[in-house]
Amino acid sequence: MTTRRKTFLPKTIVFSSSERSKVRDRLIRLLRGVCTAKSWDKDFFLISQASYTAFQHLSEKYDFAIVILSPDDMVKCRGKKYMQPRDNLLFELGVSFQLPSKRIIVFSHENCKIPGDVDGFQRIVWTDNMSDVEFSAEIKNYIEKITLDDGLLLTWSECMSSIKKLHEKMKVSNKGYHYHAIVGIEGGGGIPADLLAREGAHRCPVFMLNADRSGGKGLETFEIPLNEHVLAGIRHDYQNHQQDQFYNILVVDNVARSGENISKAKDYLKDHLQEENINIKAAVVFLNSALKDLYGEKIDFYGSIKNFDSKTSLKLAD
């Protein structure tokens, strides 16, 4: 099995027919420690809700989808009789397409006729007489490999949804408090910073704070000549707001894995902008669930909480 280097577990939704609930529950039990798997019948479909609406935010909530195809219905095709999955499972497979194809796993019984156009998905075959190890090994290996290769998958819709949540939280918390300048950390904070500035009631300048990553170990320092123009721009804008009691700056990044980068950015600005009436707050689009204790101390606002660690790579879905 692939060696894991992560502490977060990808979230997985598992679909099956009601008749194969034992197969589904067995798989979910065996996947513990590799992913956080949830069955479709555990509050996925809500009462009085159209089935398709449950899939509208699938990619925001789950990293993988497993569709268990089993021989439950007999059909006659071209003069021959076959056993195929229930129609609703083929529907659920189809509407799972909002996830990247390699994150949709077709777990099909050896005697089950499946559509030919599912060949683009990862298909894994199971039989009735498999041991637990045989039953789950291939899926475990596949999920671990994709997770390690791709890191934590973020979709554009998920990012935009989280930025909107961040903005709404800031509106409720600030109660009239507005920012004179927004500073995005390069490498991910630029787009959220610009969108927050556009969403805000007071249009304010957006600056990009650059980082020295030359050591190959991630962000090392903001003490580089390129940032002098950022400081100069903020100082100039500060002079234009001398009449205000306070000058408020918001530092923005897309992700806080350890909280170190956003803390370094705040400290850098505080060290170089020493006027007493300058307030600096920090916001991230996605907050590592392990950093909840830092909320309110080093990080003032966040959009959504994600389960990942400092070594987890992040990629936007294609």
Key attributes of the depicted protein:
5-stranded parallel beta sheet, 318 residues, alpha/beta, 14 strands, 25% strand, elongated, single chain
Question: Could you characterize the architecture of this molecule?
Answer:
30% of the residues lie in helices and 25% in strands. It is α/β, with parallel strands linked by helices. Strand 1, helix 1 and strand 2 form a beta-alpha-beta unit. The two termini are 27 Å apart.
Fold topology:
Elements: E1 11-15, H1 21-30, E2 36-39, H2 58-61, E3 64-69, E4 73-77, E5 80-84, H3 87-95, E6 104-109, E7 122-126, H4 132-150, E8 152-154, H5 156-174, E9 181-185, H6 190-199, E10 206-209, H7 228-239, E11 247-256, H8 260-272, E12 278-288, E13 301-306, E14 314-316
Biggest β-sheet strands, sense, barrel: 5 strands, parallel
What is the helix tally?
8
Range of helix content: 25-40%
Q: Overall mean pLDDT score? A: 81
Ranges where pLDDT stays below 50 over 5 or more residues in a row are 1-7
Largest beta sheet: what is the strand line-up?
Answer: 2-1-3-6-7
Radius of gyration: 24 Å
Summing up helix and strand content along with how strands pair, one would put the structural category as alpha/beta
The SSE string, one letter per element, is EHEHEEEHEEHEHEHEHEHEEE
**What is the total tally of β strands?**
14
- What separation lies between the terminal Cα atoms? 27 Å
Indicate the overall shape.
elongated
Strand content: 15-25%
Entry summary:
By secondary structure, the protein is an alpha/beta fold. Helices cover 30% and strands 25% of the residues.
